[in-house]
């Protein structure tokens, strides 16, 4: 099942806008020649099968240019990572980093994360889900595009193993507050902060974080654990 969303991830307004025509020829070549080595097969019904070894599975949603994902995968070699991103140039950049660093514990799904989570991720199969600096969609009429929504968080909680972690970060204070309200509505998740957490050692500074800091924004980390 790949195209249809399960009821716990109802089809919704998308959290991204595709901007075609921005791929350089080097990026296109990286996608054509190198992505197949890392791409998750769209017919897989369990993301864990994308790896040739069992290991705790961490999913990063919206990895952007992939810098943080490559950094994390290099520092947590005992874990498997799946990065989900729709922005093709970013995927091209990550593929090059994985090749250059010889990282074998990362797979890539170049698709809408909502589709991947609803179709390829069984219940209680993920150790962690990391969502760093998702598009804040600041205008009120665009709030429905924010990826952090009640159904999205419920769906993630369902797919986390008991004890599994959902880690969110943003530099947009109103979105941080929104995230808290949404996540507090999910009974299975327990906030490990008050409500904010210190940046955990596993998260590097990201590209969009640096951009936010350059604009004088405060950074908010939220760490939730699935109770049972
Ligand atoms: C603001 S950027 C943050 C990138 C990176 N995490 C960082 O901190 O630098 C948000 C990213 O999420 C991606 N994105 C948004 N909605 C998505 C979805 N439904 N599925 C996959 N990627 C998505 C966008 O393409 C974009 O690259």
Which spans of ≥5 residues are poorly predicted at pLDDT below 50?
none
Overall mean pLDDT: 94
Structural class: alpha/beta
The percentage of residues in β strands lies in: 15-25%
CATH architecture assignment:
3-Layer(aba) Sandwich
Quick one: CATH class?
Alpha Beta
Catalytic activity: guanosine(46) in tRNA + S-adenosyl-L-methionine = N(7)-methylguanosine(46) in tRNA + S-adenosyl-L-homocysteine
Family: Belongs to the class I-like SAM-binding methyltransferase superfamily. TrmB family.
GO molecular function, one term: tRNA (guanine(46)-N7)-methyltransferase activity
Binding site for S-adenosyl-L-methionine: 60, 85, 112, 135
Question: What key attributes describe this structure?
Answer:
seven-stranded mixed β-sheet; single chain; 228 residues; tRNA processing; tRNA (guanine-N(7)-)-methyltransferase; binds S-adenosylmethionine; tRNA_(Gua-N-7)_MeTrfase_Trmb; S-adenosyl-L-methionine; tRNA_methyltr_TrmB_bact; Rossmann fold; globular; alpha/beta
């Amino acid at each position: 099942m790949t195209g249809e969303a399960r009821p716990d991830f109802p089809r919704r307004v998308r959290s991204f806008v595709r901007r075609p025509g921005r791929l350089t020829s080097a990026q296109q070549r990286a996608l054509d020649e190198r992505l197949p080595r890392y791409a998750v097969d769209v017919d897989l019904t369990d993301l864990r099968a994308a790896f040739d070894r069992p290991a705790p599975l961490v999913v990063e949603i919206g990895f952007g240019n992939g810098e943080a994902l490559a950094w994390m995968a290099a520092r947590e070699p005992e874990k498997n990572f799946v990065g989900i991103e729709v922005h093709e140039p970013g995927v091209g950049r990550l593929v090059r980093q994985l090749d250059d660093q010889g990282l074998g514990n990362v797979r890539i799904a170049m698709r809408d994360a909502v589709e991947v989570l609803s179709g390829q991720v069984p219940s209680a199969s993920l150790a962690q889900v990391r969502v760093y600096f998702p598009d804040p969609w600041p205008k009120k009429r665009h709030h429905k595009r924010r990826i952090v929504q009640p159904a999205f968080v419920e769906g993630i909680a369902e797919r986390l193993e008991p004890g599994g972690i959902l880690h969110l970060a943003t530099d947009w204070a109103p979105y941080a507050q929104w995230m808290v309200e949404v996540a507090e509505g999910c009974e299975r998740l327990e906030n490990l902060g008050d409500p904010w957490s210190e940046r955990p050692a596993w998260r590097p500074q990201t590209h969009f974080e640096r951009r936010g800091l350059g604009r004088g924004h405060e950074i908010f980390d939220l760490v939730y654990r699935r109770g049972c």
